[in-house]
Amino acid sequence: MTEMSAGVAELKRRLPHRHPMLLLDRVVRVEPGARLIARKAVTCNEPWYERLADDAAERDHDYPVVLLVESCCQAAGLLATWDAPVPDARGDRVMLFGGISGVRFTGRVRPGDVVEHQVRQTRSFADTVIFEGRSTVGDETVMEIEQLVIAFRPGAGLATATPATADRARGGRTT
Amino acid sequence: MSRVCTPVAGRIEHGTAPDGTTRVSMTVGPEEPVFPGHYPGFPIFPGVCVIEFLHRGALATVPEPDRAWALSGIESARFMNPVLPGDTLTAELTWRRDGAGGRCSASVTGPRGTIARIALRFEDEGAR
């Protein structure tokens, strides 16, 4: 596995996610088609902490577990596209989060922690890539993922939503 | 101000139908904090935020509210359709005791049909 240090500038060339949803800070190792290790530093400056009451307990500052999942998915997305990045969510080929299973949250993550995601590609089909993942803070495992599915579609995949939006704009529906 | 650190800002409504079914719903407003970065100029409500909608809805409707419950895992989540600003999400929850913990499953639906099928696992952390 190649040791490296790809920072945020490189991540932005490889992923369409931006602040506050670019949930990785650095890639430290990569073996294209096989494995990748990336880090995410958690800080109380993230917007999810903004609405938390000033007298909230330490425990209430646990990092939202679904964002740990998203952060690990981004590591998998980087590995899935290492040799052919898909940095534009509106391009002619888009990357989708197809599904996930067997996720266990085994430790808390709080501001000040650095989470390290290790993702491994387990299977690959024509338009679907499957990963497993393990996330740690220091020596502690905080999350395990048995199966994470990333799917690739033509640009029309994400754009299927567009006609419904247009219908709404024409007054077909208000919400 | 809130007691909960969460990426989902919208208010989650919940209620029980006359037949005993528990329903939760939420309208995904354009001001959700995730949208500026997911994605710039092309807002799509992230799949993990659909999971968070069910997580929060499940905690609001726990079968034994005198006990403290915490999300301990995601058994499965499959995504079928995207969620866009303005969409209203609804889900009928099925809660069941499962040994020392609990399991909550649901199909989440929106204006373009089924959004996702999700099953969550909760840990019973004891009496409140």
Automatic annotation (TrEMBL), chain A:
| UniProt entry tagged with the keyword Ribonucleoprotein | no
Q: Pfam families attached here?
A: FabA (PF07977)
Class of the enzyme per the UniProt entry, highest EC level? lyase
List the molecular function annotations (GO) for this entry: (3R)-hydroxyacyl-[acyl-carrier-protein] dehydratase activity
Does the entry feature the keyword Lyase, yes or no?
Answer: yes
Annotated keywords: Lyase
* Assigned EC number: 4.2.1.59
InterPro entries, alphabetized: FabA_FabZ, HotDog_dom_sf
Which top-rank group of organisms is this from?
A: Bacteria
Which protein family is named in the record?
A: Belongs to the thioester dehydratase family. FabZ subfamily.
- The protein's name is 3-hydroxyacyl-[acyl-carrier-protein] dehydratase
- What organism does the record attribute this protein to? Streptomyces iranensis
UniProtKB/TrEMBL annotation, chain B:
Q: Which UniProt keywords apply?
A: Lyase
Matching Gene3D superfamilies: Hotdog Thioesterase
- Listed SUPFAM superfamilies: Thioesterase/thiol ester dehydrase-isomerase
Root EC class: lyase
Kindly give the InterPro entries that the UniProt entry links to this protein.
ApeI-like (IPR054545), HotDog_dom_sf (IPR029069)
**What are its E.C. numbers?**
4.2.1.59
Tell me the ranges covered by the ApeI dehydratase-like domain, including all copies: 20-98
Region Disordered: list its residue ranges: 1-20
Keyword Transferase applies: no
* Statement: the UniProt record of this protein carries the keyword Metal-binding: no
Q: GO: which molecular function terms?
A: (3R)-hydroxyacyl-[acyl-carrier-protein] dehydratase activity
What is this protein's record name? Answer: 3-hydroxyacyl-[acyl-carrier-protein] dehydratase
Organism (species): Streptomyces iranensis
**Organism lineage string:** Bacteria, Bacillati, Actinomycetota, Actinomycetes, Kitasatosporales
